[in-house]
Write a structure and sequence with these properties.
Elements lengths: L1 H16 L6 E4 L5 E2 L6 E4 L6 E11 L5 E11 L6 E2 L18 H4 L2 E6 L7 E8 L4 E10 L5 E4 L8 E5 L5 E7 L12 H6 L3 E4 L7 E3 L2 E3 L13 E2 L2 H10 L4 E11 L1 H10 L5 E7 L21 E3 L2 E2 L8 H6 L10 H10 L2 H7 L10 E6 L7 H13 L6 E6 L28 H23 L1
Parallel strand pairs: 2-9, 12-13, 12-17, 16-19, 17-18, 18-21, 21-22
Antiparallel strand pairs: 1-3, 3-6, 4-5, 4-8, 5-7, 8-9, 10-11, 11-13, 14-15, 19-20
């Protein structure tokens, strides 16, 4: 019996001397992580060659309003050290995404059935399972759109606008943000992020249409603003500049303008007329002024923009209303079609009069477009803008053109891109290409503003 006891005791000592390995999911040490900043995601303490499945889940507010659960998964094989680094290692075939991409599980998430009643946003939950489905580890990655010291306030005289900046007395360069045809205050969500980068930011709504809901048409969010996209005054930016110059946080000698979609059209037009703008970022831009639209507006008669009360020349659409009429029959809406047809039908003289003369913009210009954009041909139009500026020596232009990307390129590459074409409205691009264009464009845009305004 004593021999048996000694043997058991020795075995216990041996067990204590062998390290006990627990599988781990390693993410960023310091959280929350500012959206768009570098991510870390790795698996550790696996058996060499072990096959595991990593699942990710988060809640997201969709374009139509409801909050839905999104999920993704990928299988990996551990290396000789029992590790998987998602930055450098591609998943095995059959998962939600392919190719080495640390953001792959984030953008490849797919929408699940059922609305989430009590959502928690900006939190990604990871679960690790072995080949038999046994849970091995779990972890969480929390993202944020703003650093804790970002302060916001509503500026007087600008309906729905948001001003954001970091606390502190030092004056800093400013950015004016212009949204697209969605209108309302949607552009406000981007202001805290850019304030976190060190800018004083004015998110400036300029148009607020009525919106559709299952219960019928809803009144405009901001009734003080135009409800039709017609003759939007470019000189509204002069008012914004004057207000920024009065703010103690702002260095009004360094103001940039960043616009997306119709906001990019707005920003580029402004750059040809307002020499105080020190830089322009045009995300999915147009190289011409387009026709305006709205309730009761006769097709082909009105411009989107005006300068000092004078409507600008424009390229008209063709069959715009017919494109939307098909939605009643469940046919997809591709807004690019009436724009392409309108441009093809326009005379060279019409197009030249409507062209935005970006060669007159002395400030640096950033351009980001996608060739598969189904709202308008932003890839080709961004190229045309860059080519025109290249004819003038000394002009600084940064162009990013993505062959397989669509219209939604204003993100950071950390949100789901799989649902951009799920509804009747088609925006274009593959999920992988859209996510890659977002991530690359976001990094380049940060560098552009740092070099241009700082």
């Amino acid at each position: 019996m004593n021999v048996l006891r000694r043997a058991l005791f020795a075995a216990g000592l041996l067990a204590l001397s062998v390290p006990v390995c627990a599988q781990r999911i390693d993410t960023n040490t310091h959280q929350p992580v500012l959206a768009g900043e570098p991510l870390q995601l790795a698996l550790a303490d696996l058996q060499p060659g072990q096959t595991v499945t990593l699942r990710a889940e988060r809640t997201v507010r969709t374009f139509s309003g409801p909050v839905r659960r999104f999920m993704s998964e990928a299988r990996f094989q551990a290396d000789a050290q029992g590790r998987v680094d998602l930055t450098a290692q591609a998943p095995l075939p059959g998962g939600s995404y392919a190719g080495a991409d640390v953001r792959g599980l984030l953008w490849s998430m797919r929408m699940q059935d059922g609305e989430v009643k009590e959502p928690v946003f900006n939190r990604i939950q990871f679960q690790l399972h072995d080949a038999e489905g046994k849970p091995l580890a779990q972890a969480e990655l929390r993202l944020t759109q703003a650093l804790p010291d970002v302060q916001t306030r509503k500026p007087a005289g600008f309906p729905g606008a948001l001003f954001a900046h970091r606390a502190g007395a030092a004056k800093r360069p400013a950015l004016i943000l212009l949204g697209g045809s969605e209108g309302g205050s949607a552009i406000n969500r981007d202001a805290p992020f850019w304030a976190s980068q060190g800018y004083a930011v004015l998110a400036l709504p300029y148009y607020s249409p009525r919106s559709w809901s299952p219960s019928g048409m809803q009144p405009p969010e901001l009734p003080e603003l135009p409800a039709n996209f017609v003759d939007i005054p470019i000189e509204r930016l002069e008012q914004a500049r004057a207000w920024l110059a009065e703010q103690p946080e702002v260095d009004a000698t360094r103001i940039g303008v960043q616009g997306t979609s119709k906001g990019a059209e707005f920003a580029l037009i402004a750059g040809t007329r307002l020499p105080w703008i020190k830089g322009i970022a045009a995300i999915v831009p147009s190289d011409v002024v387009w026709e305006g639209w709205g309730e009761g507006v006769e097709p082909g008669k009105r411009s989107s923009f005006a300068w000092q009360g004078q409507a600008l020349d424009f390229v008209p659409y063709k069959d715009f209303q017919q494109e939307f009429a098909g939605a009643a029959l469940g046919e997809p809406i591709v807004i690019r079609r009436p724009l392409d047809k309108g441009r093809a039908a326009a005379t060279p003289a019409q197009i030249e009069k409507a062209r935005i003369p970006v060669e007159r913009i002395a400030a640096p210009v950033f351009l980001l477009g996608g060739d598969d954009d189904q709202v308008w041909d932003s890839g080709r139009m961004a190229q045309a803008l860059a080519d025109r500026r290249a004819q003038v020596p000394g002009l600084k232009t940064m162009l990013l053109r993505h062959a397989e990307a669509g219209h939604f390129l204003g993100g950071t590459g950390t949100g789901p891109t799989t649902h951009y074409n799920d509804g009747l409205m088609k925006n274009g691009g593959t999920p992988a290409a859209n996510a890659r264009a977002q991530a690359e464009g976001h990094a380049a845009l940060k560098a552009f503003w740092a070099a241009t305004l700082n």
